[in-house]
Amino acid sequence: MSRSVKLVIIGAGTAGLTALSEARRKTDDVVLINDGPYGTTCARVGCMPSKALLEVAHTYASCEFLSGAGVESIDQMQVDISAVMKHVRSLRDRFTAGPIKLAESLGKRSIRGRPRFLEPTTLEVNGERIRTEKTIIATGTRPILPAKWQAFGNRVLTSDNIFEKKTLGGRGAVVGLGPIGAELAQAFAQLGLTIYGFDKTKQVAAITDPAVNQAMLDALGKEMNILIGEVDLKETTNGAIRVLAGGDVVDVDWVLAAIGRRPNLEGLGLEAIGVTLDERGVPEYDPCSLQIGNLPIYIAGDVSGMRPLMHEAADEGRIAAYHALTGHKELIGRRTPLEIVFTEPNVASAGLRYAELDLQRHIVATADFGQQPRALMTARNQGILQLYVDSEEGCIVGAEMAAPNAEHLGHLLAWAIQQRSTVDKLLQMPFYHPTVEEGLRPALHAARRQLGERRRQPDIPLCHEAADWALGGD
Question: What is the pLDDT of residue 247?
């Protein structure tokens, strides 16, 4: 059997399905090939079930605040972990229904199987040869699990299977406190389990700003034991798993490995068409067009390793399909980077991170939420925001924060950065009282002081400034 098509998309995750939607604006001559479960990583095992779990955990943790604020009998509430996990799976199934339905709607143009390249324009899947003008690889990633740890069976979990657990023992270890590990470790700790968080370093949640990182370490340390060092696992005589790291030894009922992800590229036959992989196992590609070398093949989504986030995967799917089907050399711009970790306090970054700054040119201004009025009212008064400003132009270039409502503050700052807003312009924007958002003001004032600037008028737009903004001017 054989057929010829304009475009083959390998992978039915966020990048693949968005590429499909973009492609279908121009042609229906598209085949989607997927090996493994449908439903996108985000909806099935990633951001959606984890946020459903976190919402329960954060809300339950707020009971301590209610108890101190005069609400009685809070201590009689109990957590049923099995019921919580069932609730998470129920929501998860709702989130995955849409992507699954979209893939099924393709009929014979949707193929389940693992394809391999015979030539740059020919693939084989399930014994069928498909000739294609262009191909998009959007096969995603999977969690890294050391071979030695696999011997512990379903007692060593990853983010791909932890939500399938009907219940969990009372003692758990989370190895790797990046964004995924930090979120899930805090969620289970807030639900009353004894959690030990392990990492090689004291850097958590992918934070690069030292001050923000310390604030997040302090927050996580109130809810779990954080231990630093290389982790080794051993069996015990009583059926527990012994976790050893940096001289520390703890026994737990289960372990969550959150030590990274690797690209799903095995078996595609890329070596047969002359594609070499880098040390991460990813092909070299143009970061603007997403084309692999000079081949008629594009790569998109988490598998590329560029920005492994759902909204970025969607954008890459669009970019790959656009270039694959139009052949245009005009490059599509990328949005301002925005990353959020849904711990409490939230962690967020927008634009440049601290590690990317030129400290000879960029200034750092701080807002501390310890005494911020709205945060105090909700007993969420912990964390800081670090604002990064270009000292020559006065515009906001980035921010990192561990702060209440950072998911909203991060959005506001990402929009401001993409619009190249200055410190002065942001200070003229409306801030309602009392809100967490007005906690940004101290950082803006601190930045203006460091810039050595003084505004002669109040921080209210003058008539001509308001008119310029209404007309879209600078």
Answer: 93
Distance CA 205, CA 213 (A): 8
292-335 pLDDT per residue, tens: 999 999 999 999 999 999 999 999 999 999 999 997 767 778 99
Q: For residues 461 and 474, what is the distance between their CA atoms, to the nearest angstrom? A: 13
How much is the pLDDT for 249?
Answer: 97
Alpha helices in 203-332 (DSSP H): 210-221, 310-326
Beta carbons of 139 and 11 less than 8 angstroms apart: yes
- Mention every residue, 6+ apart, whose C-beta is less than 8 A from residue 294: none
Q: What's the rounded Cα separation, in Å, for the pair 91 and 382?
A: 30
Neighbours of 336 (CB within 10 A): 16
Task: For 23-92, give the DSSP string.
Answer: HTTT-S-EEEEE-S--S-HHHHTSHHHHHHHHHHHHHHHTHHHHHHTT--SGGG----HHHHHHHHHHHH
Burial of 152: CB neighbours in 10 Å, binned 0-12, 13-18, 19+? middle
CA distance 136 to 397: 33
User: What number of helices (H) and strands (E) belong to the chain?
Assistant: 14, 22
Tokens for 344?
């409490």
Residue ranges of the chain with pLDDT lower than 50?
A: none
Tokens of 252: 């737990």
Structure tokens at 372: 């911020």
Please say whether the beta carbons of 17 and 317 come within 8 A: yes
pLDDT digits (tens, 9 = 90+) for 258-273: 999 999 999 999 999 9
Sign of the torsion formed by the C-alpha atoms of 146, 149, 151 and 156: negative
CB 163 within 8 A of CB 143: no
Amino acid at 305: G
Q: Which residues pair with 157 in a beta bridge?
A: 256
Beta bridge partners of 401: 348, 385
**Residue bearing tokens 């990182």:** 213
pTM score, whole prediction: 0.93
132 near 121, Cβ under 8 Å? yes
pLDDT at 196: 98
The full 3-state SS of 129-154, as one line of letters, equals EEEEEEEEECCCEEECCCHHHHCCHH
